[in-house]
Amino acid sequence: MSQPDNIYSQPLEQVRDFVFDKAVVDVFSDMILRSVPGYQTIISTIGHLAQVHCQDNSNVYDLGCSLGTATLAMRRTIKANNVEIIAVDKSADMVEKCRLHLQGYKSPFPTQVLCDDILNIDINNASIVILNFTLQFLQPADRQQLINRIYQGLKPGGLLVLSEKLKFVDQPCHDLIDELHLDFKRAHGYSELEISQKRAAIENVMRIDDLSAHYQRFKNAGFNHYQQWYQCFNFASMVAIK
Ligand SMILES: Nc1ncnc2c1ncn2[C@@H]1O[C@H](C[S@+](CC[C@H]([NH3+])C(=O)[O-])CC(=O)[O-])[C@@H](O)[C@H]1O
Ligand SMILES: O=C(O)C(=O)Cc1ccccc1
């Protein structure tokens, strides 16, 4: 099990840019549950979507898989035959723990865990592609080409599930919803110091978009069918269908 996240609990002389290193990997399960409202609902719905929409003789991609939580949810639910799962993360520490984590659960589906940048991955014959809170960590200039390659690699009827933290164009509404998220973190035991140091750490590495930017990218890539299916505060999940 995860250790408690106390990475930002002591005052730091200098808050460095957030990285998914060994210290973060060791506390990651606790961090994500206490930081992302709706995370468990999104994970179980990814499992359900994969159960319903995974196609025979296809590939399933979990891009930015971290500890493989979405992969595990899908391995538990998929009923299709001849399915291969490709989980990818560029953090070597994450991939190491992800592989150990997946070894703990038997599955009939061959699963590769690749340590690579998702921008380098060949996406083909896919019926399900998951980007669960990963796109927000890519350079904004690289985001459209990834969505384009996912569109091209999907089979007809295939799904892209994209979960992201959102910003809102109306500033008072943005601030109100942001405060709801901070209250969620407070309610889960994070102090004001932890909240402000984490914020400083992710400021430069996690550039968030508004919903219309995501919809525009889907459209530019060629998707004709896309819809947000979930939101809790500023955390949302969308689905796009080829
Ligand atoms: N270019 C990249 N290439 C590969 N991996 C990347 C890249 N950029 C970031 N990552 C990886 O994307 C993951 C983002 S966490 C995803 C949660 C998971 N999906 C979950 O369902 O639990 C979200 C969060 O921590 O808010 C990290 O493991 C990074 O190493
Ligand atoms: O912690 C936050 O404020 C977030 O926005 C989410 C998050 C969760 C885990 C790693 C980085 C960002």
From TrEMBL:
NCBIfam families for this protein: carboxy-S-adenosyl-L-methionine synthase CmoA, PRK15451.1
EC number: 2.1.3.-
Catalysed reaction, written as an equation: prephenate + S-adenosyl-L-methionine = carboxy-S-adenosyl-L-methionine + 3-phenylpyruvate + H2O
Family per similarity comment: Belongs to the class I-like SAM-binding methyltransferase superfamily. Cx-SAM synthase family.
A single BP term in Gene Ontology: tRNA wobble uridine modification
Name by which UniProt lists this protein: Carboxy-S-adenosyl-L-methionine synthase
Superkingdom: Bacteria
Role this protein plays: Catalyzes the conversion of S-adenosyl-L-methionine (SAM) to carboxy-S-adenosyl-L-methionine (Cx-SAM).
Keywords from the named record: S-adenosyl-L-methionine, Transferase
Complex and partners: Homodimer.
